[in-house]
Amino acid sequence: MWAKTITGNFASVIHGLNANHLTDQVIQRSKRMILDTLGVGLLGTSTEVCHKVTQYSKIYSSDISSTIWGHLDFRLPPLYAAFVNGVAVHSMDFDDTWHPATHPSGAVLPAVIALSEAFPQKKKISGLDLLLAFNVGIEVQGRLLRFSSEARNIPKRFHPPTVVGTMGSAAACAKLLALDQLKCKNALAIAASYAGAPLANAATQTKPLHVGNAAKHGLEAACLASQGLQGNKQILDMESGIGAFYTDYNPQALPTLQSYPWLLDQQDVAIKRFPAHLGTHWVADAASSVRRKLVESSDNLLPLDKIEKVILKVPEVKYVNRHSPTSEHEARHSFQFVACSALLDGSMSVQSFASENVHRPALRELLCKTQLEHPPDNTPSFESLYCEVSVILRDSNTISDRCDTFYGHWRKPLKKEDLEKKFQSNASSVLPAEATEGIIETVYNLEKVEDCSVLSTFLSGQSARELSEKLRFC
């Protein structure tokens, strides 16, 4: 019988979806998301914010433990493994972005991987089990975001992963725990009481905690529900439930399970080429094109002394308008910084946000010449925004270029070889080559993997030679 409430409807779908519902495209897209998320998470383990939360989490101990990515001899209880690994994923703002706007994978993948390691040895979690749970968590986020028109734009008040990410993590973990419909309802209700964090902490070391907390709290909500803890069974139906986060909340029932239409089939994610707010990626591509025109006749050096002004036509997004960023986190959330860096260097990379590059004199000089304009037609949506960069020279000539779709956006997705290069570059900074290649092979064959703990073993840094027993594909 189909549920009478939206919450009951979600619980029915979470409980009822199975591996046969997964389409080939959903499997392929989600494996790309998983590979990318693992790579940025591994790179993120080297960041200052990740070191801080790792040290904090060491005060917790348990007989049950899960892998901390990039660490061979250090494990934590599943909740705190989900937290630390989630923080690592978002520590550099290098993780995937969806539309409507959120970072979908970082809230879900650390939670389901940590939970998969907490099952008894006799209860093996397969790669297909992991894929299904992951996709349930992604699906729930996408459906919740479509309950509000304002969610389609870049957020202004709260960070979306702290709301829909927490709910998605709870749904994914409920699926992996095989909770019944009543307990799925309770998992969503409990997760809702963990949801929400203000956007004011964007561009600080606290923002990565949003994703770590979403992973941790969703897992915790599912575990509490599995123990019989109860919450409001209409949490998705009420304005005082999840509706509290949106001024135009309009919940809708999910499609029936027969030939279930996954949102990931309809809407791919954006995968970033450099670690910064997604809005800056349009800026980088436009600025890089302008630089190529400027240096054609100047020995490949930007003629700084000839530049009068730099104008960026971008949507109005207050927390990405930072004229003079002083830290890597502020630089990652600055239209101006990314434009000036791309003009100076021709491209953006992980190294662009190193302190010596953030504070170099040439960049500071160019920042002083940079202005933002907000054309009325340039709406703050990752689906429709554009960036136009114009460099006005002292001789009154103007060099301009515009980016409507950057490489890595869902309309222009990264090629497989470029996704692999990004992963290898990120993971090789933490793991040996054999473990890095082992992760790629395992993710690409995930639906055939009999025991997904092989993934955690590679993530800890062990090589394939130590995994002969686990490395079996169906």
Topology, element by element:
Blueprint: H1 6-16, H2 24-44, H3 48-57, E1 66-67, E2 75-76, H4 78-90, H5 104-116, H6 127-145, H7 164-176, H8 181-192, H9 207-226, H10 263-266, H11 279-294, E3 307-313, H12 328-331, H13 335-345, H14 355-358, H15 361-367, E4 370-373, E5 387-393, E6 398-403, H16 416-427, H17 433-444, H18 453-460
Parallel strand pairs: 3-4
Antiparallel strand pairs: 1-2, 3-5, 5-6
Helix pairs in contact: 1-8, 2-4, 2-16, 2-17, 3-4, 4-5, 4-9, 5-6, 5-7, 5-9, 6-7, 7-8, 7-9, 8-9, 11-13, 13-15, 17-18
Number of strands: 6
Helix proportion: 40-55%
Instruction: Report the span from N to C terminus.
Output: 35 Å
Q: Whole-number average pLDDT?
A: 95
For the biggest sheet, the summary is: 4 strands, mixed
**Coarse shape:** globular
What strand line-up does the widest sheet have? Answer: 4-3-5-6
What does this structure look like?
This protein has 474 residues and is mainly alpha-helical. The chain is 44% helix and 6% strand. It contains 18 helices and 6 strands. The strands form 2 sheets. A 4-stranded mixed sheet has the order 4-3-5-6. Strand 1 and strand 2 form a beta hairpin. The mean pLDDT is 95.
